[in-house]
Amino acid sequence: MLHRVIDYHPSLILPETPTKEALALLKAEEWEYILVGRSRDRDDIVGLLTPAKLLQHIATEKDWESCPIGAIATRKFTIFLESALSDPIVLCQSIERSRVSHVLIADRQNKIVGILLANNLDRLLEINREVEEAFIKRLDAEIERQRLLQQKLHTSYTQTKAILGAMQDVVLVIDTETDNLKIELPNPNLANESIANFLNQTIQQFYDSNHSEFFLSNIQTSLAEQKTLEFEYTLFEGDCPVWFAARISPISQHSAIWIARNISERKRAEQEILKALKKEKELSQLKSGFITIASHEFRTPLTVIMAAAKLLKHYEDKLSRDQKEQQLERLLRSSDRILRLLDDVLILGKADAGKIEFNPTPIDLKIFCEELLAELRLSDGEQHGLMFNYQGKIEQKVPIDEHLLHHILSNLLSNAIKYSPAHSDIILALEVNDRHAVFQVSDGGIGIPPEDIPHLFTAFHRARNADRIQGTGLGLAIVKKAVDLHSGTIAVESKVGVGTTFTVTTFF
Questions:
Q1: What fold, for 270-352?
Q2: Is 3.40.30.10 the CATH classification of the domain at 361-507?
Q3: Which of 100, 165, 354, 381 has the highest count of CB atoms within 10 angstroms of its CB?
Q4: Structure confidence by residue, pLDDT tens digits, 326-353
Q5: Can you name the CATH fold of 167-262?
């Protein structure tokens, strides 16, 4: 504002100039003052010539026309550098103390570049005070407006904080204007020590690399499309999965709010429902399979039993002793077949219900296998070569459930006999050490198609090349349940037309 009252083009007159010439110059140009000096250099300035000073000299001196100007120039001035103009109040105080009428302005090269009248400065300061007062009024009004706005913001913040405090969600505010995404957690309920460690960290520090890429991709999609995204994801606390339902909403072009809700309880409930539905489906399939098996497998032996019973009832006196024994034998075989089928169904049902007891006792596996093979040779009528290979200590006893082991090996060996041609060899191999026992049953039978192998241990499932061979599809399902109770494993290798090998491993 000082620049408005400063004359930046003052005229200069030499000190030896006669008063008459100076008077003519003042009248012609109507100047209020003229610099008196040999140059505009600060050191060459003698004083100032003003109309008042000139008139006073003319009125008091007779020979005024030839008098040099340098003799009558006023020296009531002071010199300030341009830098002093930045603070008019200090400038005014300095002028009052020095009691000068003019202020010369010098630049950094010490050349006079302008003149300021002290009276003009007073008027300017008066105007400046009026401006300051008006500014202060406006500033007070703005401060009051800001105070009211701050009060509203504080109320809004308090309400928002209360809302977040009532939420059980994780709230992340993500800013992408910097190279690294920053994370803030405004939820006060989550301000515990473990969460607080992640405040203002990058998303790569907050999550591992696999999850951070997934989260970054969703954030970038939400910001690019400026729309809300909803999805679910899983994190792990140790080995325990924690499910979250997430919602990303853009706030601006560079920031988004991420709200994640822990839905683990809901997911576990859903899993329990799915398990129950799966169990119900399995039970339904079991019932359906049982009905199918019952209609097929029970029909044949029951028909035989009924036919034999009728013959014995109506034609007993006409049948010979051998014929009667033959019919009785048919009755016993068919009854035994039905009992075995019922036994298999009951065992499988108990296993599914978790009601089979596991009672391991120390037994000699070598003797157990030899006795089982002897029973099977007798029932097979020596139609197959049942061989036994053993590796381990003699008379070594290991803890195992003898009843369940009988189900495992008898089913595997019976299947090997059933699906192998007559006079072929079937091998039972046993390897025992201090930690586990490995049973291996190998045959040279019809083999199992590759597409049936994944379903072998499903109740009532039978391979497609076994349709013409009698069976229920329960044996291997029972074997799998028994192996699981031993916390063991079962594996199968098979090739159609070549043979099959089952390997069972039990641990002690």
A1: Helix Hairpins (1.10.287)
A2: no
A3: 100
A4: 888 888 878 877 777 777 777 777 776 6
A5: Beta-Lactamase (3.30.450)
- Report the chain's mean pLDDT, rounded to a whole number: 82
The DSSP code sequence of 5-63 is GEESS--EE-TT-BHHHHHHHHHHHT-S-EEEESSSBGGGEEEEE-HHHHHHHHHH-SS
CA 120 distance to own-chain centroid = 71
Same fold, 167-262 and 270-352: no
> pLDDT tens digits for 46-61?
998 888 888 888 888 8
β-bridge mates for residue 400, sequence order: 361
Nearest partner of 441 among 469, 417, 472, 473, judged by Cα: 417
Angstrom distance (rounded) from CA 469 to CA 74: 138
Instruction: Give the single-character DSSP code of 314.
Output: H
Q: Please name the CATH architecture into which domain 2-127 falls.
A: Roll (3.10)
Verdict on whether the full-model pTM lies above 0.85? no
Report domain extents, the chain.
2-127, 167-262, 270-352, 361-507
The Cα-based distances of 203 to 173, 176, 180, 477 in angstroms read: 11, 11, 8, 49
